[in-house]
Amino acid sequence: MNYIKVLGASGSKMKNKGTTSFQVSKDILVDAGNVLNTLGENTEFINHVFLTHSHADHITDLPFIVEGFFEKRTEPLTIYASKETIDSLKMHTFNNEIWPDFSKINLLNSDKKSLVFKEIKLDETITINKYEIKAINAIHIPGAFGFVIIKDDIDGYLISGDTYLNEVLVEEINNNPKIKLLITECSFPNKMAKLAYDSQHLTPSLLAQNLQNLKRTDIQIFIYHLKHIYEEQMQEEIKELDILKYGGKILEEGDVIHIN
Question: Which end of the chain is more exposed for a tag (fewer CB within 10 A), N or C?
Fold first, then answer.
């Protein structure tokens, strides 16, 4: 069975809303904005984290995945990301000032490091077990990625990452019939188009514009990263623009999407 679990889907952190994190399989995540609240003790099984970029809402729980389950871990936590994202993590997070540099600390009774950084390049595909995970360009900050994730070389999905208008998303979907759905960010209401541009995010109108050249009608659209205070307004705008006409929904924490 091919499915993805939504651990966090909000564009802002609130009492009952966690920020971006998707569970691809028992041991693979995309982003780490809200892991411990949803996975609890099962966090110890996470061995691979693919990061779209280094912004706080996408890495919030990353330090605790290593530290909180250090005694139980037998394999390193491997972080896959662009050079820019890894450099940022090394400089600003795992620097022995904000948090210990676990990339220099061995696992208990092991010569393996507890944390491993693996740089991936644009359009590179990483294969883990039955999953092929390809990094694609996102229009956000330098080194930002989206990911195409295909299981068993049969079917999968595309996660946009934080992005502004991005023709790569539509090109990937149009050219790859294995992609069955799009999981896309949409952060601000239409009235805040200037802020969306300045911060490189989408509004419902921009998302609709981005999808204009989509040639397939079998692609469901799932939307995440709505800023909490604008949710109701954005829901109305998404409905008015008929973005979900072929299926899909605005994602919430705890949702499980079955790919086929």
Answer: N
